[in-house]
Design brief:
The complex is a heterodimer of chains A (220) and B (324).
Chain A (H helix, E strand, L loop, with lengths): L1 E9 L5 E10 L4 E5 L6 H8 L7 E6 L2 E2 L8 H6 L1 E4 L11 H12 L3 H14 L15 H13 L5 E5 L7 H16 L3 E5 L3 H6 L3 E6 L2 E3 L4
Chain B lengths: L2 H42 L1 H33 L7 E5 L5 H13 L3 E7 L1 H12 L2 H5 L9 E6 L3 H12 L4 E6 L2 H42 L1 H9 L4 H44 L10 H27 L7
Antiparallel strand pairs in B: 1-3, 1-4, 2-3
Classes of the chains: A alpha/beta (220), B alpha+beta (324).
Chain lengths: 220, 324
C-alpha cells in the first residue's frame, strides 16, 4: 500500500533527513515508526502526504507513484489519506461537528450524508455527546479523538499519525492505540510515528526504527 | 455486443452520472456555505465592516456623482442645441434684387428650413427703434448696415457646419456668423469633463480594488492556521479561495449600495435649490438621479470590483500559505 524505494531527502541547507529508505507496507498492516526526535519520522510522513518531495527515489502510495502527482493533484491525493497530528490541528472557532465534517465538506458530500458520517465517526471515538462543543472546552485526549474522528470520517484507505499520544497520559495513550487497531482491523493501512517505545512494544505490530535518517532493523 | 456485456457498462455510466451529480451538489452546497459564512463573518464585525463599506462607498460615489452631474449638464445643453441660425451679412455691392434672388435660391435648398430677408433699411429702422439711438442714427449720412439673410437650417448640426463652409466662400456674402460657436465650446468642455471623470473614476476604481485587496489580505492572514488545516486535509486552492472571494463580493456589494445611497442623498440635498433656480430662469428643469437601474449597476460594479480585489489578494497570498 505504501512503498518507499531508496528514498532520500536532503534539505536545502545540506542536512540529509532521510537516506536510502526502502520499505513496503501492506494494505492490512499497522506499522509503528520510531526513533529519536530528528531521526526523520516526520519527514517520512510528510513525503507520503506530499507536503514535501523526495530528493531521490520513489514513493508509491496505493499504486500511485507520487512523482507523477502534480501540484494540482495534491488535494485529491491527501483526501485519500487520513492524518492525525500531534498538535491536533483543530479549528478552534468551530465546534466538534464542523471540525470532523471538514474533509467531507471538502470532498463535496451532501448535507445529510455528512451528518450521518460525522456522527458515525464521533460515535466510534466516543464523543457523540460532544458534537456541539467547541474544541477549547475539551481535554487533550478528547481533542485528539476529535482529530482521529476527522482523520477517518471520509473512510480513507490510509491513516497516518504523527505522535498521536505525545501529550497524553499512559492510560489515554493506550485507549488511542486501541482505536487505531480497530481501524486497522477493518482494512485501513495504519502508520504511526511515535517515540513512546514502552507503549508500542507492548502492541504486536511491525516497528520501523529510524536512526539519523536511516532505517535500522527493518521491521520485526 | 451481448446484453450481458452491455449491462455492467450501463451501470458504470449511471454510477458516474450519480457521482457527477453528487460532486455538483457538493460544489453548489459549498458555494452556499461559503457565501453564508462569509456574510456572517462580515456582519459579525459591524463596525469595521461598515467602515470598509463607507470607504468603498465614498470612492465609488465620487465618480458616480460626477457622471450624474454630467448627465444633467448634457440634458440641460440639449435644450439649447436646436435653434442654431446663420446670419448672412451681404456685401455692400449686392443690390436688393440680387439679394432677393439669393434668398429665393436658398429657399430651394432641402437642408434649409427658412430664410428671412432683412433689408438694410428695415434693419436700421429696427435698430433705431430698439436701441434708442434714433437721433444719433438720423445724423448719419448713409446707412452703415448691410442687408442680412437669416437662415434657419434643418435640425442636425452636420448640416449647419456644411452650410457654413459652403456659404462662407460665396462672393455675394461678406460674412457668415454662426451662433454655434459657444455651443461647440460647451460641447468640447463637456467632452473634456467626461475625460476628467473617466480618469478620476479609473484612479478611484483602482483605489477600491487595492483597498479591498488589502482588507482580504488581512482576512487571509487572520485565518492562516485554518487555511493550513484545510490544505492538510485535502482542500484544493479553489476550496480555500471561495470564502475569501465571497467576502470580497459582500464588501463590494455593500460599498456599491453605500455609494448609491450617498449619491441619492446628495441629489435630495441639491434637488430643491436646483429646481428653484431653474424656475427663476423660467425652466422646468429637474435634477436627474441614478434611477433604479443606475443604482443597481453601481451595486453590481461594486460587487465586481470586490471580486477583483479579493482575487488579487487571494492570488498573491494564498499560494504562500502551505503546510510546513
Amino acid at each position: 500500500m505504501i512503498t518507499f524505494d531508496r528514498v532520500s531527502k536532503r534539505y536545502a541547507e545540506g542536512h540529509e533527513a532521510l537516506s536510502e529508505i526502502s520499505v513496503d507496507i501492506r494494505q492490512d498492516e499497522m506499522v509503528f515508526l520510531t526513533g529519536h526526535s530528528g531521526a526523520g519520522k516526520s519527514t517520512l510522513l510528510r513525503l507520503i502526504m506530499l507536503i514535501e518531495r523526495p530528493t531521490r527515489g520513489q514513493v508509491i502510495v496505493d499504486g500511485v507513484n507520487l512523482a507523477k502527482v502534480g501540484e494540482r493533484g495534491i488535494p485529491r491525493h491527501r483526501r485519500n489519506i487520513g492524518v492525525v497530528f500531534q498538535n491536533h490541528q483543530l479549528l478552534f472557532d468551530r465546534n466538534v461537528f464542523d471540525n470532523v465534517a471538514l474533509p467531507l465538506v471538502i470532498a463535496g458530500y451532501e448535507h445529510r450524508e455528512i451528518g450521518r458520517r460525522v456522527r458515525a465517526a464521533l460515535d466510534k471515538v466516543g464523543l457523540l455527546s460532544k458534537e456541539r462543543a467547541l474544541p477549547v472546552t475539551l481535554s487533550g485526549g478528547e481533542q485528539q479523538r476529535v482529530g482521529i474522528a476527522r482523520a477517518v470520517v471520509a473512510r480513507p484507505r490510509i491513516l497516518l499519525a504523527d505522535e498521536p499520544t505525545g501529550n497524553l497520559d499512559p492510560l489515554l495513550s493506550a485507549e488511542i492505540m486501541q482505536l487505531f487497531e480497530a481501524f486497522s482491523q477493518v482494512g485501513v493501512t495504519v502508520l504511526i510515528a511515535s517515540h513512546d517505545l514502552a507503549l508500542i512494544s507492548r502492541l504486536r505490530h511491525r516497528i520501523l526504527t529510524l536512526r539519523n535518517g536511516r532505517l535500522v532493523g527493518a521491521g520485526s | 455486443m451481448s446484453p450481458a456485456e452491455n449491462k455492467p457498462r450501463r451501470d458504470g455510466a449511471s454510477a458516474r452520472r450519480t457521482r457527477l451529480r453528487h460532486l455538483l451538489q457538493g460544489w453548489l452546497a459549498h458555494h452556499r456555505l461559503s457565501a453564508a459564512d462569509s456574510l456572517a463573518r462580515v456582519l459579525d464585525h459591524p463596525f469595521s465592516s461598515a467602515l470598509t463599506w463607507l470607504v468603498l462607498g465614498i470612492a465609488l460615489a465620487l465618480p458616480a456623482a460626477l457622471t450624474v452631474a454630467l448627465d444633467n449638464a448634457r440634458a440641460l445643453s440639449d435644450r439649447w442645441d436646436s435653434p442654431a441660425q446663420l446670419s448672412l451679412f451681404l456685401s455692400g455691392s449686392v443690390s436688393a434684387d440680387e439679394a432677393q434672388a439669393l434668398q429665393a435660391a436658398l429657399r430651394q435648398r432641402e437642408d434649409i428650413e427658412q430664410v428671412v430677408f432683412v433689408s438694410r433699411d428695415a434693419a436700421l429702422a429696427e435698430f433705431s427703434a430698439l436701441s434708442g439711438f434714433a437721433d444719433v442714427l438720423d445724423t448719419l449720412e448713409r446707412n452703415p448696415l448691410p442687408d442680412v439673410l437669416l437662415v434657419t437650417p434643418l435640425p442636425g448640426s452636420d448640416a449647419v457646419a456644411a452650410l457654413y463652409a459652403e456659404l462662407k466662400d460665396d462672393p455675394r456674402i461678406a460674412e457668415v456668423v454662426l451662433d454655434m460657436a459657444w455651443l461647440e465650446r460647451l460641447n468640447t468642455l463637456m467632452q473634456l469633463s467626461r475625460r476628467v471623470v473617466l480618469a478620476l473614476g479609473s484612479v478611484l476604481v483602482a483605489g477600491v480594488v487595492l483597498i479591498l485587496g488589502n482588507t482580504i489580505r488581512l482576512a487571509i492572514e487572520s485565518r492562516r492556521e485554518e487555511i493550513v488545516v484545510i490544505k492538510l486535509v485535502g482542500g484544493s486552492n479553489a476550496f480555500v479561495r471561495r470564502p475569501f472571494l465571497y467576502t470580497g463580493l459582500w464588501y463590494g456589494v455593500g460599498g456599491g449600495a453605500f455609494a448609491a445611497l450617498l449619491v441619492a442623498a446628495a441629489l435630495w440635498f441639491l434637488g430643491g435649490p436646483v429646481t428653484r433656480l431653474a424656475e427663476l430662469y423660467q425652466s422646468n428643469f429637474r435634477l436627474g438621479g441614478l434611477g433604479i437601474m443606475g443604482s443597481l449597476n453601481l451595486v453590481l460594479i461594486g460587487g465586481l470590483l470586490g471580486l477583483a480585489g479579493a482575487w488579487l489578494a487571494v492570488a498573491r497570498h494564498l499560494r504562500l500559505i502551505a503546510p510546513r
